[in-house]
Amino acid sequence: MADNYDYDVLIIGSGPGGYVAAIRAAQLGLKTACAESRETLGGTCLNVGCIPSKAMLHASEYFDAAANGSMAKLGVEVTPRLNLPAMHAQRLDAVKQLTGGIAFLFKKNKVDWKKGFATFQDAHTVKVGDETVTAKTVVIATGSSVTPLPGVEVDNAKGVVVDSTGALELASVPKKMVVIGGGVIGLELGSVWRRLGAEVICVEFLDQILPGMDGDVRKEANKIFKKQGIELRLSTKVTGVTVKGKKATLTLEPAAGGASETLEADCVLVSIGRRPNTEGLGLDKIGLETNKRGQIEVDGEFRTSVEGVRAIGDVIPGPMLAHKAEDEGLAVAEWIAGQTGIVNHAVIPSVVYTMPEIAGVGLTEEQANETGAKIKIGKFPMLANSRAKTNHEPDGFVKVIAEAETDRVLGVWIIATVAGTMIAEAALAMEFGATSEDIAYTCHAHPTHSEALKEAAMGVQGKPIHI
Ligand code: FAD
Ligand code: NAD
Asked: The whole model's pTM is what?
């Protein structure tokens, strides 16, 4: 043990950033502990985020396919009956199995799990509950929590005004649900309850849903969600919510200002973003300041401005995504062990797990144009993809953006039932600096949705086959 510390590394937080960092650090021979204030390991992602939301999305997708006639189109006629307690039980089971899996991996890799809330005493000394732990390096991987909307009180137990955690657990299907924020959470969880029978209205401050995504994708997604029965109220902000018994009344205003109106709902989901978790960590005790957005700034090796303290995941700048946190977890452990840990922040895919899925990696068309580079675009509709057509999944397209001069792929955007799976190929191609021609001349199995990526890449040279 170096310099008489209890541990080589102490990681604060066991989300996808923290638990991956802890396991890799232990694999690299470092004596490692991980502090977690939750009862179970796995952070937001496994407990109240990625995993339970996907459990509800998957189950509600089956219900919807049976209810909306898409199964009947395939010659399977069923009338579904919703067993919501069973749907919740399978969600909880997935969470239990996966969080338990991390506990198993900690034991297997000899990572010590320190139960309790961690607070810095100094840069190498952290109080976790009643215990004091010292470590040569401390990694802050405390993640993020829901951004509150001023004047709006979330009460998940009551189930009228909820955040994402409450929206995963509703005991009954609301008659009318208003989602505040047309981002990823609002659209994923709004879709769940729409499919199960709720009337869903999504109120978005900006003039389009899904900020940060490619403009074409945002427009097309808007049409698809409308077709699915989600009402979108764009350029509108929610300025207040009052609750009387089991009913909520929202006050809405045009984003540009103007007369306000009210809207009644049985359930309101507040999903206007997330903010980094640094409260109570004792950053003041180690002289570590956060930036204007409350994030901890780091260098390329995830070092903060305080010697011996590093940070990763949602608590640092960048997209708040589990796989970004995981990759940073691997890299930070490798740096601490004296190796080189690389995260290519230019190639981090993002996926919205609605039906169809929406995915992207690299630059949007708008961002590519802002660089001043000349670009070429190839676009291929899923309607012309034989597998999607056969499966009755016509919505969406693949869009490949390449630099005109070099043909290097700058970004790929996909709306398709399996876009989340398809985007991995685009990310791998971009990681290897592929040209659109490289993708176009790679043999893709037939009949697969992935052929649409090949065709879109062929489209960059103006030569797709099937359109
Ligand atoms: P977290 O997962 O937030 O983990 C941090 C942990 O640190 C928490 O368990 C917390 O209890 C603990 N902690 C905090 N402070 C302390 C302290 N002082 N002492 C001890 N412990 C502490 N991302 C995706 O990529 N794909 C998805 O499909 C997806 N779906 C999501 C759905 C929902 C509803 C939500 C809310 C988020 C979703 N995300 C998704 C985002 C994803 O969950 C986060 O990006 C990811 O969990 C961040 O990982 P992290 O390790 O940085 O932090
Ligand atoms: P978000 O930032 O994606 O979307 C929030 C939306 O709320 C924005 O479009 C914003 O313009 C709007 N908004 C803000 N204030 C408003 C107001 N007063 N009235 C109306 N609209 C308002 O945030 P989110 O959906 O809460 O998600 C939080 C984070 O969790 C995201 O960073 C996302 O990356 C992550 N997440 C990822 C996934 C996934 O990868 N599939 C799923 C869920 C969450």
From this structure: 0.98
